[in-house]
Design brief:
There is one protein chain. The chain contains five helices and no strands. With 125 residues, it is mainly α. It has a single domain (5-120), classed as AhpD-like. The radius of gyration is 15 Å and the shape is globular.
Length: 125
């Protein structure tokens, strides 16, 4: 039986962000606008941008980032092979600490992939 660590983490973080949304609406609206603008498709597509975001999450050791971007990578159709290759670059750039977080990033992606497959009735290969 698998854990829902990253699903629980992102749900918990979202609950705590409600207080920030209520207490700092301008800051949160500004951050939301920044995120939408940065992630909007342009020369780079959304999947490429999410792969970059996950790599940065690994490099800066942001556990919550791994959850949110792992979920987004599933949504935009990233493959496990793409995620693994991106993690190789993140480890190369960040050394040992990034290697440890790369393992967590893969865990987040795989967890959200299993959840998406369960919702659609797909069977893992």
């Amino acid at each position: 039986m698998s854990s829902n660590r990253y699903q629980d983490l992102t749900a918990n973080t979202n609950q705590h962000l409600i207080s920030l949304r209520n207490g700092l609406p301008g800051v949160m609206q500004g951050f939301g606008a920044l995120a939408r603008s940065a992630m909007a498709p342009g020369v780079l597509d959304e999947k490429t941008k999410e792969l970059i975001a996950m790599a940065i999450g690994v490099a800066v050791r942001c556990e919550d980032c791994l959850g949110f971007h792992g979920k987004a990578l599933v949504r935009v159709g990233a493959t496990e092979e793409e995620v693994r290759e991106m993690l190789g670059v993140a480890v190369y750039m960040g050394g040992g600490p990034s290697l440890m977080y790369a393992a967590h990033a893969l865990e987040a992606f795989e967890e959200f992939s299993r959840a998406a497959q369960a919702k659609t009735g797909q069977v893992e290969r």
